[in-house]
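Sample entry copied in:
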Amino acid sequence: MAGSAFFDVRMRGFRDRTEVADVLRLLDQRCRTLPSERVPLPDSAGRVMAEPVVAEIAVPGFDRAAMDGYAVCADETFAAGAYNAISLRVVGAALPGRSFEGVIGAGQAIRVMTGAPMPAGADAVIPAEAAEEKDGEVHIVEPISPGRHVGHRGEDIRPGQAVLSAGRTLRPQDLGLLASLGIDTVTAVRRPRVSILVTGDELLPCGAKPEGFRIVDSNSIMLAALTQRDGGVVAGIDMLPDHRDRIRHALLQEKSDVVLVTGGSSVGQEDHAPSLIAELGELPVHGVALRPAAPTGVGFIGDRIVFLMPGNPVSCLCAYDLFAGRAVRLLGGRGANMPYRVRRLRLAAKIVSAIGRVDYVRVRIVEDRVEPIAISGAALLSTTTAADGFVLVDRDREGHAAGEEVDVHLYDA
């Protein structure tokens, strides 16, 4: 890995390139899970649990009817049959939220609805369709066993039971479970705050129309969406000219956990961000053995992680997928791996690569076969929208032959 001494690559080219695996190791070493905070339960979907949850109460908290029907003492039904109906006197009712006051006696039944508390003394429920009520009596033609159609106290959750573990990303059904335990707030990992600095005199803000020799910034809106997908919060998007003092001031003003600097990361004379990061902090990585995101950089200013993201859109996406997204996920308590579903499929055409670098190859899937779309053209964002996903070619390979199986990282969930 490159050392902390800074080598100015402007108009000179990269002296060496850091291996992808070394960049990943650096991020894993430097990205520590952020502190926790209390979050109202209705706002906690998608948040990462910082502490396990242990149930303090039983769910359900009482024995309850699991069917509409009649609560009975099971042993009084054992002789029931098609030719020997048992008749029990209906002496009351239990409804959801309203119990039957009293104890069921011999020869008695209580009308119950699903979810109603089981009457004291009853131990089974005859379903309504298996009984007939007439003139205050219910006639039963089938025996029933004790406990049948009864939801018992604690059968869902027992007091003292660990129900959710730390590190879990809360799903909608998890919120329902927590609500059933009477929990109104959760302790979650603080979401990483991510600032996006867009540099370039040629850029117009998102929403503008291209004019003359100026183009519309497309990286910031893409990076913002990727940040939110990975559990981060976009603290702000600032557009900056290629002016060293303006970029320096912006880097010093940022109070976020992660800063994404898009554009101005390579070897051009107006690429000021690398030397500024080295001046204000440290820049252990500048230039990666990766195509198409070779100009990527990783630096640190105080407690902040700063990523130099190439201005070319495909390179920017690649750098986020492999590096910046990993940092956002690790800081937020999520897994380090990319959040893409992976399919193992055969290649319809070969992929050509070069030993000594990792290749991020956009592919499409046609009839369960993989076709590379482009292995060049880092400015062609349309190749990623036409792609179903991407294949990572290892640095020690010259590519993959047609017919070979590869892992495809799918853009769509």
In short: The longest helix spans residues 313-331. The chain has a mean pLDDT of 92.
